[in-house]
Amino acid sequence: MRLVWLSVNSSYSHSSLALPLLHLACRDVPGWDWQKLETLNTDDPGETAVRLAELRPDLVCATLYLFNRRQVTDILVRLHSLLPDCRIVVGGPECLGNQAGEVVCSCEAIDAAVSGEGESVLPELLRRVAAGNFPEPVSQPIPGVTVRCRNHQNVVLCWGKYSPRYRHWAEAPPPAESEFFAFDKPFVQMETSRGCRQGCRYCTSFATPVRYKQITRIAEELQLLASKGVQEIRLLDRTFNAPPERAAELLRLFKDKFPSLRFHLEIHPQFLSDELKWELQHALPGQLHLEVGIQSLDDEVQKAIGRACPSQDALSGLQFLCSCPAFAVHADLLAGLPRQTSASLWQDVRQLIATGPDEIQLEVLKILPGTPLRSQAARQGIRYSPSLPYEVLETDDFSPRELLNARVLSRMLDLFYNTPALRDAFRSASRNNENFPDAFLHYLQLHGFALNWSGSLRKRLQL
């Protein structure tokens, strides 16, 4: 039988670990020929459906993300018309929590949606498809799988009641051993841990059990990647420096054994031990790029979203990271958080500008499927878009107009603060006048600046 993996990305420079991880997890399931069809979010869905149908699949699998769900479903409904007997299974972040049922109900082409870690589910699902027992009877659900079943003339859903975890992840072969691992991209992704102990209520990894790969296995995986010519690695670990002693050991490994590799890491500004600080201060120039999740510097907001990090600790950690000479620091802020006001967001922006990270990324909060905040939104006074990308539209403390202005502020930061040629001037003006960002944005808006404004560097300098 033939399984075709439909990979829909925003550009050909991106790839996901999902296919190689699942391919290896199913390596002991006989009778399946695996193929991949890779396409872009901007490609014509009808053309992609024809290409997919020409591969004559028995089963099509795809991962649904915020950015590709519409495109994937547009392709799948066309494929279903061409090949009505082909089974279609989807998974990914768009299928978390109760969203799996909505995904199946909203697209008649989809037979099943997997909520949880697919490596624990797909082997059994392949066996059932091969045996002709899929969709399965209601009495035999696969945990974490929501299935469209036929009961006489009615369509009903059956599902496992929890999202499973893959128990063997830490000992499983590295995804780079799969024939479907993409070595030809500008960067590759890698996990050294899976799960997160942090309690951020907006996050899909909220309080999930954490599993760690052994350092020796990480070294072997890095050696394999380096031998294939990989130069840049983006670690998917939710909090690279938790615990900090493990992070320090990994940084030593990166520096001593793999000096030619570059690493993108997500760092929590609170978990910086003396040992870890020493390693960061002595990192190889250019080897690291750090993304620091600040989100908010208001303690009341931090409590409301479940982050047990006093704002002063977060700011002190960020100040230390910005003082390290060997790497760039990218700081994240969110707008539309519970108990957050426009005034507190502006204060956060001013504090970050004064601290001086290389980039400040400000985004409006998205109320994602499977997160605690999704079920608590009404109680927290949050109104959000029911359609993609689920962005917050209004809160009890943040008006729709203020959130729109936050998006315009984000655009200003991208085009002026985050542009290396303009950053020093922006910082200098802000040091001389703490209200400069507010006044500058007002000035820009008077001259036509808006969300879709995209002036050249020369035009920005002229402003």
Concise structural overview:
Helix content is 37%, strand content 20%. It is α/β, with parallel strands linked by helices. It folds into 2 domains: 2-159, Cobalamin-binding domain (Rossmann fold, 3-Layer(aba) Sandwich); 187-462, tm_1862 like domain (pyruvate-formate lyase- activating enzyme).
Structure description:
- The protein is an alpha/beta fold and 463 residues long.
- The protein has 2 domains: 2-159, 3-Layer(aba) Sandwich (Rossmann fold), CATH 3.40.50; 187-462, pyruvate-formate lyase- activating enzyme (Alpha-Beta Horseshoe).
- The protein is 37% helix and 20% strand.
- The protein contains 16 helices and 17 strands.
- The protein has helices at 18-25, 45-54, 69-82, 99-106, 122-130, 215-227, 244-257, 274-281, 299-304, 311-323, 342-355, 372-376, 400-417, 420-432, 436-446, 457-462, and strands at 2-9, 33-40, 59-63, 87-91, 112-114, 145-151, 154-159, 188-190, 193-196, 208-212, 232-235, 262-267, 288-295, 328-335, 359-364, 382-384, 392-395.
- Strands 2-1-3-4-5-6-7 form a 7-stranded mixed beta sheet, sandwiched between helices.
- Strand 14 (328-335), helix 11 and strand 15 (359-364) form a beta-alpha-beta unit.
- Helix 2 crosses helix 3 and helix 7 packs parallel to helix 8.
- The longest helix is centred in the last third of the chain and has 18 residues, at 400-417.
- The radius of gyration is 24 Å and the shape is globular.
